[in-house]
Amino acid sequence: MQNGQTFELDPSSVDTKSPVPVYLQVEQDIRRQILTATLAPDMRLPRETELARLYGISRMTVRNALERLEDASLIRRDHGVGTVITVPQAEVDCDLSLMMPLQTQLTEQGFTPSVQFFQNEVIEPAPRIAAALEVAPGTEVLFLNRLVKIDGRPMALIRSWVPLAMFPGLESRTLIDGSLWKTLEAHYDCTMLHSSKHLELISVSTADALILHLADGERTLAVTGLGRDGKGAAVEYSYAIWMPTARLNFDSHFQALAESN
């Protein structure tokens, strides 16, 4: 390390009997120290061999942990310098009250968004999702599961269910700029005009934490939404898990109830 600062190893952070892989436990311990400013920007981490000795694990396990931290833009590895803590990520604004694709909002803030798809398949949705989409049980829908990134780092894990009867052939199309809304408008003349959203604070599952580069069980915001077109038809049921660095906002309008005589 440098500037007299030391790496504060938490020996209890690695439990070889835990179902959580050891490399994830190491990643989460180093991540914790970065996010709590115990490890400051431009500080150097110990070498891989030293980290392996400190944690009592193999060098390959350490390397896997560092690769995930690098993918999350929390560290960088410079040839001849070593592994360096990076500057904290800038907060990202998303206005939930705007009927505007997420990628468009990110681009307007100067970020470079990209989308990584994990699933694009035709399924029979769960009863509650079929009810929300106002389709009969057993009706086929398109299920999309994708990760939106900005400048290469995770921002939101978004799952969408779309009724295929309204959009035949959608499962075979490449989404324009990775955006479902842009694709529906361009190919089906469908514009999303109304959306209801429900926000909740959740504990991220192990599987989702792995994708988002978060700690297992870390608390963050999830948004459930139902989008409708100009005719009021349900077009998309969605569930999005946001990174803690995202700053979500929306406009609300309230009207007082008239008192009854």
Automatic annotation (TrEMBL):
Gene3D superfamilies: Chorismate lyase-like, Winged helix-like DNA-binding domain superfamily/Winged helix DNA-binding domain. Residues 20-88 form the HTH gntR-type domain. Pfam families: GntR, UTRA. Keywords: DNA-binding, Transcription, Transcription regulation. GO terms for molecular function: DNA binding; DNA-binding transcription factor activity. One of its GO terms (biological process) is negative regulation of DNA-templated transcription. CDD domains: WHTH_GntR. It comes from the Bacteria. InterPro entries: Bact_HTH_transcr_reg (IPR050679), Chorismate_lyase_/UTRA_dom_sf (IPR028978), Tscrpt_reg_HTH_GntR (IPR000524), UTRA (IPR011663), WH-like_DNA-bd_sf (IPR036388), WH_DNA-bd_sf (IPR036390). This is GntR family transcriptional regulator. It comes from Pelagovum pacificum.
